[in-house]
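Continuing from the previous page...

OK, I double-checked the sequence for Sporulation protein YqfD against my notes and this is the correct one:
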Amino acid sequence: MFARLTAFWRGRVHFAVRCGNPAAFINATLQDGITLFHMQKAKYGLRAQVSLQDFPRLRRAARRARAQVKITARYGWPFIAARWRRRKGLLVGLVLVAVALSILSQLVLFISVNGNKKISSAELLQKAQSLGLKSWVWHKNLDLDRIATGLEDSFPDLAWVGIDRNGTHVQINVAEKIRPKAPAEEGNLVAARAGVVEQVIVIQGVAQVHEGETVRAGQVLIAKAPPASPLAKAGTAPPPARAKGFVRGRVWYSAEATVPLKEDKVAATGRVGTGWGIKIGPRVIMVTTPESPYPLVRKDVIARPLLTWRNWRFPVEVIMVRYQELQQVHLTHSPEEARRLAEERARAEVQSKITPGATPLAEKVLVMPGPDTAVRVRVEEETFEDLAVYANANGGE
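Thanks. Re-ran it with the corrected sequence; updated structure tokens here:
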């Protein structure tokens, strides 16, 4: 960590050397007392880093070794300071913008309502305004608990009111009182999926299938009792509104997966670069490593607030950009390895389809015919599970 801070403070120059004899160039730099960092061999020569104070002497070593030096990147505080010295007006403007944003962040600028269906947002906002919640007021002058209580008392249809403040945005979250709904378990019991019936237990209603019968998804298994006849005796209780019972059976699931014997993939090399910047509103200003140091990367951006105090956040964030180098990898699988990978992928897909709680009965793995350049595997799983669900819960009748 100390070495990285030292390198950042003194400055580093990243360069590429085009030379037929890289060893001669390295010997020339050693003779001049120049220290090279992070040397890497390249097809045209080599790549390396040198401190800013040693870079002027690097030209002389390059001439002696008949090498061409090209700067690829500049890193460190001296370059940042030089850049900002040329942009004094921009720096002053950023300071003024930061001060203005800091002041504006103490005000309420936006108010929204969430969760209301029966009561209109305009009514809620009008009442909240009469209680003191309105735009362009200071956060510290608001008693959000008192305003929430006032809204609950003003609207009898509200079961709960909560007010959240996130920066300049205040959101009124409400929950309205609702009538109890009829139970979802009503109507016929239908098949959730296709299968072979093994067991039928009727508690209430009329069975529509028998053991050993093959059923399709959505087929009625146990029907609710028919409506009472107009000739029924007065005072007779109406038939139940839903069927009850259990229908269990065997269900089959299957999935296929194909793995080529030769494939190209993108994999991480383990090399990681990091850049730092500042975010002011939607604008991001990168201070270090403004561009990716690798040709193929996966970029992750992490934002952290600069200052926080209770619910207040300073409107300037520190941005860390993590560049993870990727490379194209050519893989060659043996037929046995490709079969194992295909079987694992197909089995994982089958397991994701099986109903939770189902009892596995048997598994069959089949190698399917296919091209000579790939292996295709099919996995079939047989389970014993409950088939019956209520029609209104399965999208049926």
